[in-house]
Every structure is written in structure tokens, then in C-alpha cells.
């Protein structure tokens, strides 16, 4: 720590950081310390139950997720930010889900990759801070390392953990991204969100198509459609395929039914606006994309990381759940001899759903 940093008014600096964060486009910023020990037991219980599925990295990092100073030595304060992502003018989610010929992609993925957008803004925040006080120890995190993001945000007064395990803010609902800036600065913490406001409501639990919310505040990722369509690399278990419906990348059902999302706002961030008409497009059209089409159109998107093979796998399941039509059958037949065994398997299953062997 420099001589200047020793003499700083950290209370005033904390307020300035929050103002800078808003100037950079973040809706809110909050600050907390690094004691997350209260979350360790729940994390271990979740891992022991195997609820993380094939996401081995979650178990591999162990309790580092709850120990920020082990993850980035020297950390003593955490800055939490959030940024809404609902794209303005996007097709109505409920209407797309009700049209089984359409492809439903989670609303967070309709624009550019949030990892890059938030990381860039958080680094700008760190640079702005460094320009005022000199170099300081820090590291940016956005859903890309073993960080208990929701718990940190809750501790920083950003909202409470809903029964679906996502963060909810009473003024903004839950359709927002969160990110963190770990620092070695002794910033005064904000009061945590002590009270949750879900009450007796269980709409998110009953709305989950696969029953992934196995208890309030507990999700079995192995049943979650977001896990099945994004994190799972191999074959989607047959028992879940009909439950996916036309959800081919992620799922928003638990958020769509949440009463607090009546306060959700459209994003002001242009990078999150709809690209390539992905808010209202047919399964047949997306299934027809070549690998070159996929790479060109999904460049800069969070969807890009699942790769073309998983993309086709997911579309095949969606087509298997679509109403039988000449267009659907023709599309599936076109990939019966696909180079990927994974794609061929899911295409075969889909054709069986239409009583075609």
C-alpha cells in the first residue's frame, strides 16, 4: 500500500467507486468483506450430493470458492456490480415457448458475450481507481472462476438469494448479470441483505420443467435445462429430452414466473441487444446452419463456447419435440448421417418422436 493509500478517506472513496461504476453503465455497486465462511457448509453439502454434475471445476476448487483471499492473495474487500440484460424489443418469451416450431434461447444470450462486456467494464473501473490512488492489488471476476457471486452480492447489499438460487433485487428483479472486483483496499462494507422477500411463494419451484429446484434454495444442476443444454458435453438423458420442449439454449422459466420480475427493466447496454434475430427464429432455420454459419454468427456470443456439435444436438431435441410437419422431418433427415455420433443419436431419437425410424 502506498503512502497516498494510507492517508485516503476510504468512506468517501467507496462512494466515489459506486459513482464511477454507474458512469460505466452498471446499475448498482456494493462493497463487502471477504468472510464467506457461513456459506461453506452449504457449498460442501451441494458438492457431496453430486448436484454439480459434470462441472468438475466446482469440486476441484473446493472451498476456495468461499475464501476470496485464497483465490486471490491479498484480497480484503470485494466490489459487487450488476447490469440488467433484457434486450428491448425482444419477442415475448411466453409466446416463443408456446410456439413449438420456434427455438427458445435464454434471454441473456441473445446479444454479445456478457463475460467480455462486464470484464471490460470492471477493468475500466479498476483503471479509474488506479488513476486516482495509484496501483493497487485487484482481480476481476465474471462467472469465470470459483467465486460465490450470489453470496458476495447478497453480502454487498445487492439483493437476496431466491428459492431458484438466483439473486433478486426488489427494484430490478433478477434479469441481470453480476460481477466482482477483488481488491486489497480496506473499503468500508455495505450492510448485507439480511432479509429475503420470497415469503411462501414457490412459483419458481413448480414452474421448473425438469424439477431441478429440488428444495427451496437448492438446485440439482444435473436436472437443470441450462446445464443440460450448455454445460453437459455428451448425450442429454432421454428422460429429460421431452421436458426441454423448444428450450435449446438455457431456460428462463423460473425467472419468468417470479413476481419480482414485474420490476425488471430493459438493458441500456447496446451489446446485449438481440443479434441475428435469435429472439424469434424457427428450429428448422437454426438446424440448417452450417458450421461456418454458426462460427460467423455466434462469434462474440456466449453461445459460441458450446460449439457446433452441441448446437445441433440441442436443435435435434427441439425438433423432436416440435409438431410433426414435412419441414421438421426433412430437416431431421438431412442430418441422419451427420459426421457426429452425438448428433446422429439425437436426430434418431427425434425422428422416433415423429414415429419415423
Automatic annotation (TrEMBL):
Note on cofactor: Binds 2 [4Fe-4S] clusters per monomer.
Keyword set includes DNA repair: no
Binding site for [4Fe-4S] cluster 2: 208, 224, 251, 254
Molecular function (Gene Ontology), one example: 4 iron, 4 sulfur cluster binding
PROSITE patterns with a match to the protein in the record: 4FE4S_FER_1, 4FE4S_FER_2
One of the protein's GO biological processes: tRNA queuosine(34) biosynthetic process
NCBIfam families: tRNA epoxyqueuosine(34) reductase QueG
Protein name: Epoxyqueuosine reductase
Organism: Iodobacter fluviatilis
Lineage: Bacteria, Pseudomonadati, Pseudomonadota, Betaproteobacteria, Neisseriales
